[in-house]
Amino acid sequence: MKNKVxxxxxxxxxxxxxxxxxxxxxxxxxxxxxIEGELNCILEGCFDESQCDFNGDGYLDIFDICATVDCMISxxxxxxxxxxxxxxxxxxxxxxxxxxxxxxETNYQGPPGSYDAYIHTVVLSxxxxxxxxxxxxxxxxxxxxxxxxxxxxxxxxxxxxPNMGDILVYGTSAxxxxxxxxxxxNLSGSRVMKDHDNADGDSDPFTGExxxxxxxxxxxxxxxxxxxxxxxxxxxxxxxxxxxxxxELTNYYNYTNVSHQEDMSILLNDYNNWEELxxxxxNLPTLSEVSHWPATFIKWFGAKAFTLFYxxxxxxxxxxxxxxxxxxxxxxxxxxxxxxxxxxxSANWNYLEEHPARGHVLDVQLNEPNPFGLYNMAGNVWEWIxxxxxxxxxxxxxxxxxxxxxxxxxxxVRRGGSWNYHQATLKSSARAEDExxxxxxxxxxxxxxxx
Length: 451
Prior knowledge:
The protein has two domains: 2-74, no CATH class; 80-451, paralog of FGE (formylglycine-generating enzyme) (Alpha-Beta Complex), CATH 3.90.1580. Helix content is 18%, strand content 15%. It contains eight helices and 20 strands. The protein has helices at residues 2-18, 32-44, 62-74, 136-148, 246-249, 287-291, 300-309, 318-325; strands at 91-94, 97-101, 120-124, 127-130, 152-156, 167-171, 183-186, 193-194, 211-212, 221-223, 233-235, 251-252, 268-269, 313-314, 382-388, 400-401, 412-415, 432-434, 443-444, 448-450. The chain is globular, with a radius of gyration of 24 Å.
């Protein structure tokens, strides 16, 4: 009888963890961070009877910590289901409504002669939008699901171009036509290196002396083809030298006077210029922090691939995005209260007007949400949109219901500005465009569900 009780207790412990308890940081893994979370919870008296009380005695104690350790050793943990959206993705209801889209040309702050935000009225059905941009943890989860189903593969790019020599994730021949054979994510993505100040006066950012960006502007999703736990793609740890060699990553060459040609005669290094690398590794962001940074180096194909993998998921249309950005109150800026503060507290943008900006992406739940409960509609990363870009699309859609531009123009819309852009891009009405194969350290996306 005693052995039977022990066996039943062990089964109960394992079942409790398998059901999803005790993953304190909700990263889909059971590890030392969760044990630390349990200890802190015990010390702070935060136990709410919902996590880690495996014996059901109403207390969080050493028994429960031992159960967690046993589960880690026996590998009883079952993480996220690869066939469904990551459980941390939260949607907010956006009600149906009629709203004014665009802005008057007199208020336009884009480049001269580029006005494209013609005022018009749009009617929208209700929908749901993810409260945040898709983060590294969530995108790695998608990549694992797509890889498991044979929809993506990893290749070294050998063709001439900006990604030559990089390791890219591609859609396979079995993937949907929208991204089959196309690069969707750059595993080798690193900071943009340009002549930002145009000191040589030739208006070519890929000649002359480079002003380096922050080295933390890098791809945080790694790949291990030998993984046996269906976690081939994972979020890399900034403090793990096997994931990042920051000394090497801060090596660089200036350009010659020939565009994109590096001057290989002098190797430069700016490791000591960044406070994040001082006192290594103590000033670096943690694994938990970068897991919740927005996934960057996402090409439009990569954002679309994410939506096609899950039932009922789409990229937002321009109209949906602008309506949500206005917060139901006609906000001029896509911030929590419609205002932009000059100290960076309203959004993650280049408020210091640095060239280049010295910052980087931050948590997808940075600052306060807007009235619809959405975070970072302004700044952090540009967000890919479903529509093809057309400068005069607004002119032809006055009074339209749920408009979306399906005519291929060669450019997809992106919205919201980013950590390294200026204030005008934070406007709810600000439009931008890029080719589908683009996507560097300030490109990301969020998703919608249409009712």
